Amino acid sequence: PVDLWTGRNGTVDPGDQCSCGAFLSGTIFPMGELVQLEQTAVQISQKLELEIIKVDMYESKLTIYMEKVVNLTLVIKMMEDDPDSYSELYIQEVKIQIKQVEALILELQASIQTSSSVLITIRKEITVIIVELTKLETKYDKNLVLVTRREYIKLQQKLDECERRHNEIFNPNISCNHGGISRLSKPIISQLNANLGTGHIYGGWGKDSHPLPGTENRYWYSAATTTVVRYMSVYSDYYKLIMRQAMKTYDLLSPKNWQGTGNNYIIRANTFYYQYASPFSMAKFNITSQTAEYRAVSGASSRFSYHYSDNQNLDFAADESGLWVMYATEASKGKLVLGKIDEAAFALKQVWQTSVYKPSVGNAFMVCGVLYTTRSVDTKTEEIFYTYDTHTQKGLYVSIPFEKFQERYTYLDYNPTDQKLYMYNNGYYVSYHVWFNQNQS
Ligand SMILES: *[C@@H]1O[C@H](CO)[C@@H](O)[C@H](O)[C@H]1NC(C)=O
Ligand SMILES: *[C@@H]1O[C@H](CO)[C@@H](O)[C@H](O)[C@H]1NC(C)=O
Ligand SMILES: *[C@@H]1O[C@H](CO)[C@@H](O)[C@H](O)[C@H]1NC(C)=O
Ligand SMILES: *[C@@H]1O[C@H](CO)[C@@H](O)[C@H](O)[C@H]1NC(C)=O
């Protein structure tokens, strides 16, 4: 009877046959939300296309201005060599031309700056949506989200390319011909890890820093719920990484126990460099031959981990000049020691003593022979606070703040092949574009 129903709010009388319909909205797939996200993808795509057209324009304008500068430089040189042959009128004309080029370049810089902020906004929008898609994917059937996710992967790749070209306008020669890091981009959130586990907070991801020919597009990922390093997956490209379709997953416990610890590994020339669990040493797992070997690091102590995670005693890094390992010793009283590894001999060939206390450091990485160390500013902000230049053997306290995705991260490394920083942040794949000072300092 109806009044029995309403009066009892759906409870069942003992012996009665009636039952209540459950409120199902929590488990029904929110189609409306997905349609909305697809429409947003179209809008973002249009905005992005517009920015790509602009970058084309900036590049061609820049080429013309450069040519003008070269022409004027030649004229000035001729005038200097033979000052008497040029009339005052001609000199005035050249001066006006110089002023004009200067004005054009300033105008171009302003436009590029505006475009940069548009790209940052687009990046933010995409990031929010990727997090939203991941939520949908973990809660419902992930196949329903597949098409939309593909759209966003494409958008992300287009945006990456657009940002890279922007970066190149400011830094035409991406090599070590710069004065060090000036700033980092906003965090680029790719997605939650392949284990789809928010408990997998210990891990890392990235690309080979010196790929064998034909493997340039590969990505790798490793993570666990503890600091143990056991599984490592390789993906043929970014798309496969995002679709969580590994080419192969390697197990460092089988057939032999080659397990590691500390999650501060990298892949270089198809070799996985990591901290061996026992005995405490540096190790390399050759992915081609699938064999591991380890070497003790003279003086290295296992007492000084980084701030965010345990067992991070040997941190591997790679830059334009090769392979590095960061650690601390009892003799250094916990201050960070930097070692350059001879890859062929798998041995340290030179070490530098820095003045930064390793446990105060969030993480560290190398760019062009310079060590960069980070620390927490607040729950949303991290900063590069100390650098050590191996060429001048000088340490420097600096402040280059950057935004974190979430408070804790266990992995940060630079990759010289694409000048990006790869961070593993609370289970998410995060990366940053790196901007350099133009002049060699
Ligand atoms: C039924 O639910 C309403 C609203 O939650 C509440 O005010 C009322 O006391 C409930 N009745 C019974 C019998 O539990
Ligand atoms: C630079 O000089 C060359 C040769 O005089 C000329 O052909 C060219 O148009 C000039 N370029 C610009 C951008 O003024
Ligand atoms: C760019 O780098 C190349 C070699 O890597 C060098 O020859 C060239 O002079 C550099 N150009 C500028 C503008 O620095
Ligand atoms: C890895 O193994 C392959 C095949 O045995 C070998 O050619 C290569 O030199 C090894 N790489 C390193 C870094 O030891």
Task: Report on the architecture of this protein.
With 441 residues, this protein is of the alpha+beta class. It has two domains: 31-171, Glutathione S-transferase Yfyf (Class Pi), Chain A, domain 2; 182-436, Neuraminidase. It has five helices and 23 strands. It has helices at residues 2-8, 31-81, 88-139, 146-170, 238-242; strands at residues 181-184, 188-192, 202-206, 219-224, 228-229, 231-235, 248-251, 260-261, 266-268, 271-276, 281-286, 291-295, 315-319, 322-328, 335-342, 347-357, 364-367, 370-376, 381-389, 394-403, 411-415, 420-425, 428-436. Strands 1, 2, 21, 22 and 23 form a five-stranded antiparallel sheet that branches. Strands 3-4-6-7 form a four-stranded antiparallel sheet. Helix 2 (31-81) packs antiparallel against helix 3 and helix 3 packs antiparallel against helix 4 (146-170). One 2-acetamido-2-deoxy-beta-D-glucopyranose (NAG) is lined by residues 8-9. Residues 175-438 form the Olfactomedin-like domain. It is found in: Secreted. Its main location: secreted. Keywords: Secreted. This is Olfactomedin 4.
Topology record:
Blueprint (H helix, E strand, L loop, with lengths): L1 H7 L22 H51 L6 H52 L6 H25 L10 E4 L3 E5 L9 E5 L12 E6 L3 E2 L1 E5 L2 H5 L5 E4 L8 E2 L4 E3 L2 E6 L4 E6 L4 E5 L19 E5 L2 E7 L6 E8 L4 E11 L6 E4 L2 E7 L4 E9 L4 E10 L7 E5 L4 E6 L2 E9 L5
Antiparallel strand pairs: 1-23, 2-23, 3-4, 4-6, 5-8, 6-7, 9-10, 10-11, 11-12, 13-14, 14-15, 15-16, 17-18, 18-19, 19-20, 21-22, 22-23
One 2-acetamido-2-deoxy-beta-D-glucopyranose binds next to helix 2.
